[in-house]
Amino acid sequence: MSRASTQLREEILYWCLESVRTGLNFNTQGNISVRLPEHEAIVITPSGVRYDVLTPDEMVVIGYDGVVVEGDLFPSTETDVHLAHYRARPDVNAIVHTESPYVNVFGAVGKTIDPVLLNMVLYAKGPVPIMPFEFSTNAEFGARSAATMGADVNAVVWGNHGLLSVGADLAGAFKVAVAVEANAQVLAGAMAIGTPNILRLADIVIPDGARLP
Ligand SMILES: [Zn+2]
């Protein structure tokens, strides 16, 4: 019996395919993981496999200590980075890494992505910081990435590379990735024609019982 259920493996594969369908990833870019707290482990996508040929049984289960406990393929090259984020944020149960174009426009110039759309401020929770470029496959990078994200924001841009977004569950982490890319697209256009109105979560009054988008 696997530590990661078939349903969870299929859910991860669904969001991998969705990341390509929504233009957040191309080819084998990006990776997704989910925490398995009862096993002190995570389940993560394998390295270098195209999502359209990936199967649920090919996901890799890895202990919090970084040791593979299930799976025949190499885990994502950014596994140590995911583990560092899980260590830093007990509230995080899922991580989505994407390499979407407008996020990378901001990452390329080292400019923080300020919220200009409601979904961005609701899901990312604030301006998304940029981490200067460095190679992304070790635990030290992960610790710096987690420190740059901090405790209150749900995403961090890796300069000249992509975005890491987190959530209490996988659908939530994916919503952050979508919201940050859409926001980056609008913000780039808004900056080109005027001065954007920057939203702050603390300034937004959410009516009691309001259904969020
Ligand atoms: Zn990447």
Automatic annotation (TrEMBL):
For this protein, the record's InterPro entries field holds:
Aldolase_class_II_sugar_metab (IPR050197), Aldolase_II/adducin_N (IPR001303), Aldolase_II/adducin_N_sf (IPR036409)
Q: Name one GO molecular function term.
A: aldehyde-lyase activity
Keyword Lyase listed: yes
Which stretches are annotated as coiled coil?
none
What's an example Gene Ontology biological process for this entry?
pentose catabolic process
Pfam families named among the record's database cross-references? Aldolase_II
Can you list the GO cellular component terms from the UniProt entry?
cytosol
Going by the UniProt record, its keywords in alphabetical order are:
Lyase, Metal-binding
Annotated transmembrane regions:
none
> Class II aldolase/adducin N-terminal domain: which residues?
10-188
Q: Which domain of life is it from?
A: Bacteria
Asked whether the UniProt record includes Cytoplasm among its keywords, one would answer no
- What protein name is recorded for this chain? Class II aldolase/adducin family protein
